[in-house]
């Protein structure tokens, strides 16, 4: 288990889906930052299940408590303890699964690795684990915003084969993103996506999608070659999220088909600094931010838990037909939006602090 | 600068493209391993430039010397120092670039971050920096192979829009990969790819591509949730390579279009262990290896250095037309094959050692 | 702020003396360990204030809650969250000190470093910060004991100039240590020490002392040269405790006066293994445990808070006479005993897990 | 093996006593620092054996080469590779010891831990391993001196029972230290110490001693509570050195006998800042530098290799009489002076860079 991330702004998360609670410790947050639960709660609310008919109805308030590190509304420079209590500590929905590793879930590998696993839910492999990340990410984002003006906005750019069109990454805002249930800021695309999700839901199935994210106003100089390049830290952060299968920055996989003469981003004077005419690079050069917007995309697979019967085998190798009870998210991608933003913030703040050494 | 990777098998690289040399220290290699330069040289030879008319003719012998950590052909358990001398310590080809940041190179960001940069070549942002990684990766791979039977094979699966067909990741071998200049093990695809590279070369242009990689016989249990999941460590490792723009594992971005009922990998008894019928997961579940082959793909952008004139601006903001002198790789993807294998080995060995704690 | 310790068994502590609570996350604890609050509480009880007339009467129950990482009485291999609520969240005793940095306290340096500090108590520089360490250390100690039979026993070997005599480190037990208020297992010495503490208390003064510690049954092979040698990890662990001023292992400072012919520990066959006739080394050779008992001593300065008036200056540089209100520990050394044991356990468990790689 | 130290200024050392060479990589050194071998060589020369009749005559030039990270006399911000070739790669003096673990050496524990060990000398447990530390420390010291005016001076404060008197830590200089063979800046004490060493040498014996060190002009604010306190980092650094048995800061062990009223350091205005009247603390409060000189002492045991015959047993348990051939240092303490300074510099620079985040 390795539940800490970051060199200078270090986040350590804890908690299973069905225990007393989940949370995080943030070590390395600068002193003197105005901070209260109200700064953290909004992103937790955005990731919370039960926000629309598109998501699972498990409704948890997910109220965060700051345990330490803040006094009189200001950070002390000491570790910030964050705790969210679980509402349902031990449901009965999962009993059958004790003997059967759910396909494309982590039951099998946790059991193999640890010789045991949380008896229900999914323990640390549950999406609930991301609460600690989002709480910590909200703090990181606040510092990035207040100190450097960094704006991080993620949105759903595809669900299944339905792809969003016409989104301007220079302008897109969280208000626009939250204006649709699917969190696709293009209204027409959103309508198609939501229809698809409802169709999938009716079929007791699930569907994947892609979250895009832009980080604007990242100053040039963030990123630590050669192993902690900005894109490497983002890639680790994103692939550490449950259900992610891919990461690309700038031109990404599509860019591999271009020629250099077309792909290269020529420099040009932009106000007081150099910028680039195009941004196929996605905001980094040699692993260091260039001053252009950091643009990346994250692939999420379809949710593994589906209502349809599945043929599989138990831990004993005997065939079994598995049918998930209860109701589950047909598509996690809209709820993944604040989670992607949070992980981006955690990757950026750590590199921002490491860059401070050079200033 | 952050030139160390790994928690237990820790690699620290050093060296610019045009100084005394490049290399690495490997700390954490188990004692008693048979090791000599002959175990390391083959992968260095595979990454060396000048191997065919498809690559740059800069010919360097790139002979590795073991400075420490090995005695009488056996590792001591102490740090292994690895050094490759540079042949050309200071060429004159790069002078003009002092005043002009090359488009899509790291000149601009290094200069901005550090207030200075290597006066020629690219310093640490040069592909030459990967020599230390490959040397260290060869050691990692030897341990993985001898102790667990792990086989790592990478190949070129696309160059530009030319995509390889018909490659069986369960069987593909390095001999097959090396049988073509393009390192695409499908002969017909290789012919098309090589024609494309020659066309691009003639046009003084460059082209990108995708390297695929399979890691076979990875035992179940490797990977440290939640932040050091196997795919997260691979993603960081790959995106830390020069010119990479994307990473995907298993079904990757394409998998986002599938439904869960189609994407899920049902379990089945396979000999003494459970396996999965399909492998859309790409060999990990919940960030932990499942025992199925680990399958991933890495996107490489077109080489930034091209012979065509490029309109850009100097550090002073004044327009300039840049035209690269000398000859450069039109396509790095074939040479990236051993580099991808090396980084995969480094990611795996560290997680393998971390898993040993549980055994 | 750097509140994490350990490479594989990683402890992250949090909490101020007067906030919601203090605690720790333990990441890297093996799965399948029987664990409940009852395993942790005893050492917390031993460090708790108010146990005798020798210590401060601030009585806090200091009951620990396990927030995560344990299910059905067994560890899951996931992070173990530990929380102890504070009873007194904001006392009024400390108001005057806002303007005056207490001599030999951390008020001045925290204020200088962070530009702020906890308004009361001492925040993270308070002895209360050690609760997280002790809770985590109790888990470490349980593993060390159950898996390797390691026994860790610390005791008070001096208070002021009163030194303990006649303690056999091969046999001393915690029961013997706890049999006296001063935690000196030699009854006659204990009587003298306690008389001294009462005298000091009556004089509204404080006094320092030395805690000795033995770790028995440590197998040979623990310790990671060259920077994470066993004695280096112990030294860091001990000097990270509040009020510590020195560490010595084996012959320590006294050994510098000996000649090699007298100081060297000759080898001898001991049952199935080699041991040494003497143990001036204190159980390590070259930074690696030898199989002989690990023996070390830690110096604690006199408590900085005293009832006597002190001439000092405020943050504004103006002279002021400071007189501590309330009642404070005249001597922390007896309460430091379980804390030293806990830190020893944390240093050992991490090296034990790192050594597992070689087995 | 764990041969890396530091979080931001990270040193990784390598090399055995009898291989191709020893050295280090320094990762995290700021760019733009004037640096050449001439900045590093003086401290290497000070630690070199064969400087007087008091030390071993093994004469090695110990010339350092900078492999990378420096161009045109300025650091690039990239890893600095440092290499010192060994002169004697494989002497025959040590053959007998293959079967006999030398008393109070690391032969036994290396063999037990790694299942092998360097066949001669002592490999990584040799004093020669400190060359990489000293080379890296010289760079750290240069930054500390040029940027903050930090002065680090160590000296021999005792050899055996001969203790130095009359040394003013506010004024003592390296020139004064180097003025005597024993590196004790008090002439009268030095004479006595040197007589003792010659007596010990004639007796084919060895003797220990204490090195004191002062770090002047350390600004307030360096040190990262709670685990990376300044004194904790110094303690780890010093106890990671071969042959060290103890560390104390400020009043140290002697301070445990004082009462708080006597031990406390009252604040007083000193020019523009607050200082303390006395400095029993040794320059830190709560693990953070106070602005007062950092003062500490390190205990070195007598050298384990002696010319006298020693009764011990071989790895096979059979008794043997061991008699060291050749000539060895009777006392390492004078040569330890630059090594202690180097480790102090490495501990300080890392905390200095970590403090920069708060400025």
What would the keywords be for this entry?
homotetramer; 359 residues; alpha+beta; Chorismate synthase, AroC fold; five-stranded antiparallel β-sheet; globular
How would you sum up this structure, described in words?
- 4 copies of one chain form a homotetramer.
- Chain A is of the alpha+beta class and 359 residues long.
- Chain A has one domain (4-356): Chorismate synthase, AroC fold (4-Layer Sandwich).
- In chain A, 28% of the residues lie in helices and 22% in strands.
- Chain A has helices at 37-47, 107-114, 130-148, 174-178, 187-202, 230-239, 252-255, 260-263, 333-356, and strands spanning 4-5, 10-14, 21-27, 64-66, 70-71, 74-75, 80-85, 151-159, 162-163, 209-216, 244-249, 267-270, 273-276, 284-285, 288-289, 294-300, 310-313, 319-322.
- Chain A has a 5-stranded antiparallel sheet, covered by helices on one side.
- In chain A, a hairpin with a 4-residue loop joins strand 1 and strand 2.
- In chain A, helix 1 (37-47) crosses helix 3, helix 1 runs antiparallel to helix 9 and helix 6 (230-239) packs antiparallel against helix 9.
- The longest helix of chain A is centred in the last third of the chain and has 24 residues, at 333-356.
- The model of chain A has no long low-confidence stretch (mean pLDDT 93).
- Chains A and B meet through strand 1, helix 2, helix 6, strand 11 and helix 7 of A and strand 1, helix 2, helix 6, strand 11 and helix 7 of B.
């Amino acid at each position: 288990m390795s539940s800490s991330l970051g060199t200078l702004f270090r986040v350590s998360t804890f908690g299973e889906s069905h225990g007393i609670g989940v949370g995080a410790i943030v070590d390395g947050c600068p002193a003197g930052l105005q901070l209260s639960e109200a700064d953290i709660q909004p992103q937790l609310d955005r990731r919370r299940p039960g926000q629309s008919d598109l998501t699972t109805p498990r409704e948890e308030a997910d109220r965060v408590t700051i345990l330490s590190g803040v006094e009189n509304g200001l950070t002390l420079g000491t570790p910030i303890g964050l705790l969210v209590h679980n509402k349902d500590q031990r449901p009965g929905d999962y009993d059958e699964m004790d003997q059967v590793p759910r396909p494309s879930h982590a039951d099998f590998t946790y059991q193999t690795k640890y010789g045991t696993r949380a008896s229900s839910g999914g323990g640390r492999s549950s999406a609930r684990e991301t609460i600690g990340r989002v709480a910590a990410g909200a703090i990181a984002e606040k510092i990035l915003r207040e100190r450097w003006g960094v704006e991080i906005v993620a949105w759903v750019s595809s669900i299944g084969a339905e792809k969003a069109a016409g989104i301007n990454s220079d302008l897109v805002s969280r208000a626009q993103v939250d204006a649709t249930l699917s969190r696709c800021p293009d209204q027409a695309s959103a309508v198609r996506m939501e229809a698809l999700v409802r169709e999938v839901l009716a079929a007791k199935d699930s569907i994947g999608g892609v979250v895009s994210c832009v980080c604007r106003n990242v100053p040039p100089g963030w990123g630590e070659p050669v192993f902690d390049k900005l894109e490497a830290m983002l890639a680790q952060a994103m692939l550490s999220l449950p259900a992610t299968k891919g990461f690309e920055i700038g031109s990404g996989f599509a860019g591999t088909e271009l020629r250099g003469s077309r792909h290269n981003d020529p420099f040009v004077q932009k106000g007081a600094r150099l910028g680039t005419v195009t941004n196929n690079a996605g905001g980094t050069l040699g692993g260091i931010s260039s001053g252009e917007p950091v643009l990346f995309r994250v692939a999420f697979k379809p949710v593994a838990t589906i209502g349809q019967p599945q043929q599989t085998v138990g831990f004993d190798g005997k065939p079994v037909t598995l049918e998930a009870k209860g109701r589950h998210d047909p598509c996690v991608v809209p709820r993944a939006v604040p989670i992607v933003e949070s992980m981006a913030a955690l990757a950026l703040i750590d590199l921002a602090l490491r860059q401070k050494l050079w200033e």
